[in-house]
Amino acid sequence: MQVPQLEKDLGMEVYSTQSEGIGGKIRTLLDDFVVEELLVNDSLAEVTPPTEEWAPTGEGNYLICVLVKRKWDTFMAVREVAHGLHVSQKRIRFAGIKDTKALTAQHISLQNVSPDKVLGLQIKDIQVYPQRYSRERMYSQLIKGNRFHITVRGMDNPASVIAERTNSAIQEIEQVGGVPNFFGHQRFGTIRPNTHLVGKHLTLGDTKDAALAFLAQPTIHEHPEAQEARQYLQDTMNFEEALERFPRFLRYERFMLGHLARYPNDFVGAFRALPRRLRKLFVQAYQSYLFNRFISERIRRAIPLNEPQVGDYVNKLDENGIPTEGWDQATDQNIQDITAGVNANKLCVAAPLVGPNQPPSKGLQGEIEQVILEDENVTPEQFKIPFMPEATAEGRVRAVLNPVWNLVLEEISEDKENEGKQMMKLGFTLNRGSYATVLLREFMKPQDLIAAGY
């Protein structure tokens, strides 16, 4: 099955399933993409608030609530909630960033805020309802994963064909124990998939090229006004005039241009006009791209993702089956114990996000990684960014297989939004840090990612 060029450009060069794709489109309607956060204590943030009157449980200074949002960026939603409650944003904590183009529910903690104030909130496309009290605020390690309910619409094939192909893919996924743990499309962008390219230039020390990759390279799928402004900057290198031409919705680009209009050669300073988290995200995106390429080549060579080989890294799993920061490496001496640990779900095969603290694997996987690093003309040490230390990506290991829990074909029926076509509903749960689109691509096999809603 041919993988579209856009996915290859993101390092996702292969499929792991052999079944034919069902096609279709996601996110036709906002409620077609539902995400509900699941905590390690099995608390589920549900998009439908409970009908019964809230009764306080637990104890502590933190009120754990569920934030339900439509069409809201997580950061902006939290800011709006803080404004509505008349409290500092610092008193609100959340554990995970959820999709903007979706109906999502997630846990947030409010420090010293009364339930009555929460229940009185009225914000368009946002609901907040209290769940319990706690002695600790929300943080990322409290998340176990996310439960998804996805509707795929606009499929041309008969329901019987859709069912056959979907069930075939489910069998393949269950036989292996999951899908490749690629970093998904959202990590890089699909309208403008370039975060990893900016990161590559930063890693190689080319700050001017990095800035221009972010500012001045138009793509055909973005807004025409944005394309025109980027092309103007590319042609003229006039930062001051470009600042006047760049549309207001390109907020981060305008931050950088504001600095470059005053200091045209200070590209490091321009990057420092961006949020600290975003600066590091560029370099991490390049790590993610390399990881995707490592896994793609492993699959292409038919090296199993669920069977450790000598030289492989392995992640230790916690009691919830979630990879921890602890890792080991398979050798000739310990390969039997490592294999037993993987079979017992205490370990999982991993590969490196290369960096100064995380060298490539050894063995067959190491050979794959060295060839790709040489092709990219980069070394792990270069992910230490001396001119912008806060963007340094030290490296770590990441599981190569993404487990899929409770994978169910929920419904196939006539698509009322597209006459004469079919729709399908799929339910599944993924570990935190995983991407639903990486699973969905195995069913849909989309050739035009933009048209398919990715």
SSE layout and pairings?
Layout: H1 5-9, E1 33-39, E2 62-70, H2 74-85, E3 92-94, E4 103-111, H3 115-119, E5 126-134, E6 143-155, H4 159-176, E7 179-180, H5 185-188, H6 195-203, H7 207-215, H8 224-236, H9 239-245, H10 251-262, H11 267-271, H12 276-300, E8 313-317, E9 323-329, H13 335-343, E10 347-353, H14 363-376, E11 396-399, E12 401-402, E13 404-414, E14 422-431, H15 436-444
Parallel strand pairs: 1-4
Antiparallel strand pairs: 1-6, 2-4, 2-5, 3-4, 6-14, 7-12, 8-9, 8-10, 10-11, 13-14
Helix pairs in contact: 6-7, 6-12, 8-9, 9-10, 12-14
Q: Tags for this entry?
A:
Hypothetical Protein Yqey, Chain: A, domain1, four-stranded antiparallel sheet, 14 strands, 454 residues, eight-stranded mixed sheet, alpha+beta, globular, 15 helices, Alpha-Beta Plaits, Pseudouridine synthase, single chain
